[in-house]
Amino acid sequence: MSTPAAAPSPRPFLLACPDLSSERAGNTDTPGVWHFDSGVPGKRVMLSALIHGNELCGAWALKDALAAGLRPRRGSLTLAFCNLAAFDRFDPSNYAPARFVDEDMNRVWSEDKLSAPNNQERRRAAQIRPWVERSDWLLDFHSMSNSDVPLQLTGMEQRNIDLALALGNPATIIADAGHAAGVRMRDYGRFGQAGDNGTRSLLIECGFHGAPEAHGVALDQLARFLLAADTVDRADLPAAWFAPDAGAQRALRVTHAVAAKSADFRFAQPWKGLETLPRAGDLIGWSEGEPVVAPYDDCVLIMPSTANLRPGVTVVRLAQPIAA
Ligand SMILES: [Zn+2]
């Protein structure tokens, strides 16, 4: 029997909770979904926030875009406040329960789960699905329970890795295959197909959930993404939304997802994420008392978290640099 470590006290949540009382209505038949069509040919772009109800940075960015009266010059722009039912549970002093109501909404994007939706998140995803299906480019805003360093999650397709590099920010790009527990929105349908079918989808992890800086990261990503999609002109975007380019960007490919066998999982050190373990065999943590070790040299830890510890939940992913 191993002794569970004492629960760490949660980090203070300093990012203010946005008032979405007007934004949550949307301007479409789908609550929380805004859609603007320029009437001019161009990409159909979707920006989504609050897939996880306690990840507020993206909601702030969409609220700012609406407040600024941002409209597409070419193509169309859809803004979606996704899991409002979970967001309504948000409490800064106990923010973990607002991640979802019944099920993680970023693990339900497959036909078997959405054709006969039987819980809060599946019903909501089924409502939003038509907007995802009719979009060409998708940027999904998230934040993290531990790491402060923003991460761009591209999936495995080169077209999305290339877009992440073209955006110039953030510095760290993670090519990852998603989760065994279910399909993410950014991998749904055409977005998950191999090769270049004209779609692009990125999932930006803007930093720690409660960090005020995550709001600025989200705005910078929103601005860069809409420019890359040619949805707007640079002059349409407030200069203050842009952060400086990340000097050098590096791309890492996820090779392993470490899942908890049970609630008996703990890390060997208080990992923050992006630590490099120099040697194969270096200790990462213990699962039911068994050591979990780096499988190869220069193994990078991605988003270590025991915040949602249950059997089968990914607690850390392992990555290695993609050779240029
Ligand atoms: Zn998230």
Q: What are its keywords?
A:
single chain, 324 residues, alpha/beta, Aminopeptidase, OB fold (Dihydrolipoamide Acetyltransferase, E2P), eleven-stranded mixed beta sheet, three-stranded antiparallel beta sheet, 18% helix, 24% strand, disordered N terminus, binds zinc ion
What report would you give on this structure?
The protein has 324 residues and is α/β, with parallel strands linked by helices. The protein has two domains: 23-241, 3-Layer(aba) Sandwich (Aminopeptidase), CATH 3.40.630; 253-321, OB fold (Dihydrolipoamide Acetyltransferase, E2P), CATH 2.40.50. It contains six helices and 14 strands. The chain has helices spanning 57-67, 84-87, 111-114, 120-133, 158-167, 213-228, and strands spanning 33-37, 44-49, 76-81, 137-144, 151-153, 172-175, 200-208, 250-259, 265-267, 276-277, 283-287, 290-293, 299-302, 314-321. The protein has an eleven-stranded mixed β-sheet with strand order 1-3-2-4-7-5-6-8-14-13-10, sandwiched between helices. A three-stranded antiparallel β-sheet has the order 9-11-12, with no helix packed on it. Helix 1 (57-67) crosses helix 6. The longest helix has 16 residues, at 213-228. The model is unreliable at 1-6 (pLDDT under 50). Zinc ion binds next to loops.
